[in-house]
Amino acid sequence: MTRAMQAYATEFQGKKVFITGGSRGIGAATAQRLLDGGATVVVTARTRHAQTPAGATFIEGDISTPTGAHAVATDALRLLGGLDILVNNAGAAAPKLQGLESITDTEWLDALMINFMSAVRVTNPLLPALRASGSGAIVNVSAGGLLPFYGFLAQYGAAKAALNSYTRSLAKELAPAGIRVNLVTPGSITTPGADEGRKLLTAGLGIAPEHLLGGIPLGRHGTAEELAETIAFLVSDRAAYITGHNQFISGGFGEIA
Ligand SMILES: NC(=O)c1ccc[n+]([C@@H]2O[C@H](COP(=O)([O-])OP(=O)(O)OC[C@H]3O[C@@H](n4cnc5c(N)ncnc54)[C@H](OP(=O)(O)O)[C@@H]3O)[C@@H](O)[C@H]2O)c1
C-alpha cells in the first residue's frame, strides 16, 4: 500500500460521524467515503435504500418534525457515544411548475422544515458532543447559495438561503470552541432525488433533458462521489483553517455562469 493509499484509508479512524439523508445520493456517497477513511458512521432517513452503505448504522426517522429530528439526533449520539463530524445533508425539492403564485403556505413551510429547520433541530442537541470532541466539524448541504431560483423551486431556494445564513452564524458562534462549520453548494448532481426532479421538470416544461446542461460551463451533471470528496476534505484536518466557507461544486454554475 502506498503512503497516499494508507492516508486515504486511515484519515478518519476514530472519528464518529452522523449524516442526515445518508440513505442514498450525496449523503450515502459521503457516508461511504468516510467509512472508507476508517470512520464510524450513523446515517438517518425515512427509508433504507439499496444504496445505503452496509457499513453504516441506519436510524429510521423523519427529521422534518421537531420530535423526529430530536429523536434521531439523540439516538445517533447514544449509538456513537460522542460526535466529531455532523453532515446536515437531508433536503428535498418539490418543483411547482405553475410558478411562484401557485406555491401554497403549506408548501413554503414544508420546504423550510426539511431544508432548514431540520438542520437546526438536529444540530442543537449535538452541540455539547461536538464541543467535547476537540476537533468538531459540521458541513451543511445547501443549494444555489443566495442565487435567485426559478419560480418552480422558489420555496426550496428560500429555505436553503436560510440554511446559508444559519450556517455562517453557527460558524461564528462555534469558532471559539474549535468547531468548524462550512457549507457545500452542489450544482446539478446525478442522484435519485435530483434525477426524479429533473424528469418532472423536463416533462412539465416540454424541454429535452440536455437543455438542463446549457448553463453548466463544464457541460455535465456532477456525481455524488464528487460531492462526497469535497465534504470529506472540509471535515478533515486538511481543512483545519477553513470555517464559514461556502464551497460550490457545480461545474462552474453559479460562479462563472
Ligand atoms: N442532487 C442535486 O442536484 C442537488 C443540487 C443542489 C442541492 N442538493 C442538496 O443535496 C442534498 C442531498 O440531495 P440528493 O440529491 O442526494 O437527494 P436524494 O437522492 O433525494 O437524497 C435525499 C436524502 O434525504 C433523505 N430525506 C429526505 N427527506 C427526509 C426527511 N423528511 N427526513 C429524513 N430524511 C429525509 C432521503 O431519504 P428518505 O426520502 O428515505 O427520507 C435521502 O436519504 C439535499 O439537501 C439537496 O437539497 C442536491
The parts where pLDDT drops under 50 for at least 5 residues are none
State the strand order across the main sheet.
3-2-1-4-5-6-9
Q: Helical percent range?
A: 40-55%
Mean of pLDDT: 96
CATH architecture annotation: 3-Layer(aba) Sandwich
The CATH homologous superfamily name equals: NAD(P)-binding Rossmann-like Domain
CATH class category name? Alpha Beta
CATH topology: Rossmann fold
Distance between the termini: 41 Å
Structural class: alpha/beta
The backbone outline, from C-alpha atoms, is globular
The helix/strand series, from N terminus to C terminus, equals HEHEEHEHHEHEEHEHE
Our estimate of the beta-strand percent is 15-25%
Domain count: the total is 1
InterPro entries: NAD(P)-bd_dom_sf, Sc_DH/Rdtase_CS, SDR_fam
Family: Belongs to the short-chain dehydrogenases/reductases (SDR) family.
Protein name: SDR family oxidoreductase
Keywords: Oxidoreductase
Could you describe the 3D structure shown?
With 257 residues, the chain is an alpha/beta fold. It has one domain (3-249): NAD(P)-binding Rossmann-like Domain (Rossmann fold, 3-Layer(aba) Sandwich), CATH 3.40.50. The protein has eight helices and nine strands. It has helices at residues 3-10, 25-36, 66-80, 105-123, 127-133, 154-174, 192-205, 224-235; strands at residues 16-20, 40-45, 57-60, 85-88, 137-141, 180-186, 189-190, 222-223, 246-249. Strands 3-2-1-4-5-6-9 form a seven-stranded parallel sheet, with helices on both faces. The chain has a two-stranded parallel ribbon with strand order 7-8. Strand 1 (16-20), helix 2 (25-36) and strand 2 form a beta-alpha-beta unit. It starts with a helix and ends in an 8-residue tail after the last strand. The mean pLDDT is 96. The structure holds NADP nicotinamide-adenine-dinucleotide phosphate. Residues 21, 23-27, 45-47, 62-64, 89-93, 114, 141, 143, 186, 188-189, 191-194 line the site of NADP nicotinamide-adenine-dinucleotide phosphate.
